[in-house]
Amino acid sequence: MTHRVAVLDQDLCQPQKCGLECIKYCPVNKSGAECVTIHEESKKAQIDEDICNGCGICVKVCPFDAITIVNLASELATDKIHQYGTNSFRLYKLPTPRKGEVVGLLGRNGMGKSTVVNILSGKLKPNLGRYENPPEWDEIFKHYSGTELKQHFQKIEQNQIRASIKPQQIHHLAEAFDGTGNELLDKYDERGVSRELVRELGLQNSMEQSLKELSGGELQRIAVAAAASKDTEFYFFDEPSSYNDVFQRTGVARVIQGLAKIGKSVMVVEHDLTLLDFLSDYIEVLYGEPAAYGIVSNILSTKIGINVFLDGYLPNENVRFREKKFSMDVSSSSTDIFQEDTEIVNYPKLEKKFDSFSVSIEPGRVRKGEVLGIMGANALGKTTMMKMIAGVQKPDVGSVDKKIKIAYKPQYLQNDIDVEVIALLEKANGGPIEGSQEEEQILDPLKIKKLYNKSVKNLSGGELQKIAVASCLIQKVDLYALDEPSAFLDVEDRIAVAKFLQKFVRSFGKSAIIIDHDLQLMDLMSDSMIIFEGESGKAGTATSPLPKSEAMNRFLKSLDMSFRRDEKSLRPRVNKIESRLDKDQKASGNFYYKH
């Protein structure tokens, strides 16, 4: 038996611009029934799931890719937790919070992580799929009888559960709270720990400023501190790594683990696998079809959970949720393939001084087909170096050969422009996109075509990032400079973009310089690396390009973190601090995994 899911993307459906192909070609409609119709109020297509036969013709003929139809195993029908309305997103199964443990939620964007957080925190009452006549609490308790979730929902109904949530969108915090970091923590600190948190999160110099003046990283860590300082039973952290460098991410991880150590239930949504590996005790994988439906897996250990996600297969449930597995092989990043004469740019020692900050960069070069990774703490001058090589900023000492063409993707993206994505891409391309070579080589692999008719201002953070990466890569240049291309991307997109970038640069004899704080990603795509050191906000120094193993070893040593390789997936794994492996590797000076 199968159970049908038909989902319509309201943003993409544009009946006034098409020939209503979904209605014309539907075989059920042709037989005289009304399966696909136009809804009177919304003026958008609507699909009757009860009579739809799942043939998928409407999916293929829709010119805007607005329809998703999936056949699911009928057993799942009884596990439906919530559905928002007709032809809209639905969630199956729920993760169970665990006292004294950190549970990581791992999955693509659009799989229902926010729905999970809202239900478990009591913000949203689960309707078990009955959005027209939602059940009363007694029926929900009956549905969960014999499970830990029954007690959880009983406590929610009796207002005995308080939840503290660090939301994904932190800029709303600065808009909603008119005051300084100190004032915010004074308001929320119920555990008397604000001073300790400020120290652990490196916020000493940010607390006197108004939230509106803070950088993204400072605002993110203040939001983490505010959520952690409340005294509640449940803590949810939605993407706590965004905007933070690796040092700040480990500080955030320790704060989150500290809550589990005092017996609290903690859940974390995070797309940086290094951080998720470092801070989680367990993993629950979310899989399904983005924006259509999401299913929560059974609970798994951190190691198995991440490996299962990369494999795209859940052995215990016998479910394959992705056709291809992601491998983390690093054989591809050998430096033997570069000849001496394939230099695309070289630069002498560069120096730049500002009023209260200076940066000094050792000489280096970038070769054809090479991805040069740049790593280091925030505010050491990484972006300044990028801008000097790109010719956007002039160094005080040294000069960069001007003859090469560079395309630059900035760290902060503009999302307030009301133009269609296709117009933005055509401007970057300097000509039509549809049917072009660029579409085939760049936009198809990055899955951008379905966003063509969306307005830039309506894109999600991840969609905007992919558009920014694509519009950088379609420019006809020699060197691509990308500042934090992983920000806001989910794990699958991160790995896909990293692998695509490396393949693109190699295949077409281009070169790329990439700044990012996701260690696994940098390990996956860099051929050589530059490490920035110094004192954040005051003075930064950059090494010359180093072989990857030497650079990673030096960088991990500065983090006091050691990596090993997972024997199955070959991905780098963080050794738990003070574990036997951690001590052995550090004692031998080998912070980067043993080969």
Description:
With 595 residues, the chain is an alpha/beta fold. It has 4 domains: 82 residues, Alpha-Beta Plaits (2-Layer Sandwich), CATH 3.30.70; 192 residues, Rossmann fold (3-Layer(aba) Sandwich); 211 residues, P-loop containing nucleotide triphosphate hydrolases (Rossmann fold, 3-Layer(aba) Sandwich), CATH 3.40.50.300; 36 residues, no CATH class. It has 21 helices and 28 strands. The strands form 7 sheets. Strands 5, 6, 7, 8, 9, 10, 11, 12 and 13 form a 9-stranded mixed beta sheet that branches. Strand 14 and strand 15 form a beta hairpin. The longest helix is centred in the C-terminal third of the chain and has 17 residues. The chain is globular. It is an enzyme of class 3 (hydrolase). InterPro entries: 4Fe4S_Fe-S-bd, 4Fe4S_Fe_S_CS, AAA+_ATPase, ABC_transporter-like_ATP-bd, ABC_transporter-like_CS, P-loop_NTPase, RLI1, RNaseL-inhib-like_metal-bd_dom. Its EC number is 3.6.3.19. GO terms for molecular function: ATP binding; ATP hydrolysis activity; oxidoreductase activity.
TL;DR?
The chain is of the alpha/beta class. It has 21 helices and 28 strands.
Layout: helices, strands, pairs:
Blueprint: E1 2-8, H1 21-25, H2 27-30, E2 36-38, E3 45-47, H3 57-61, E4 67-73, E5 80-83, E6 90-92, E7 102-107, H4 113-120, H5 137-143, H6 148-157, E8 163-166, H7 171-176, H8 181-188, H9 194-200, H10 216-229, E9 234-238, H11 246-261, E10 265-269, H12 273-279, E11 282-289, E12 293-296, E13 300-301, H13 302-311, E14 313-314, E15 319-320, E16 343-347, E17 350-353, E18 358-361, E19 364-367, E20 371-375, H14 382-389, E21 406-409, H15 421-429, H16 437-443, H17 461-473, E22 479-483, H18 491-507, E23 511-515, H19 519-525, E24 528-535, E25 539-542, E26 546-547, H20 548-559, E27 563-565, E28 572-574, H21 580-587
Parallel strand pairs: 6-12, 7-10, 7-11, 8-9, 9-10, 18-25, 20-23, 20-24, 21-22, 22-23
Antiparallel strand pairs: 1-4, 2-3, 5-6, 11-12, 11-13, 14-15, 16-19, 17-18, 24-25, 24-26, 27-28
Helix pairs in contact: 5-6, 8-10, 10-11, 15-17, 18-19
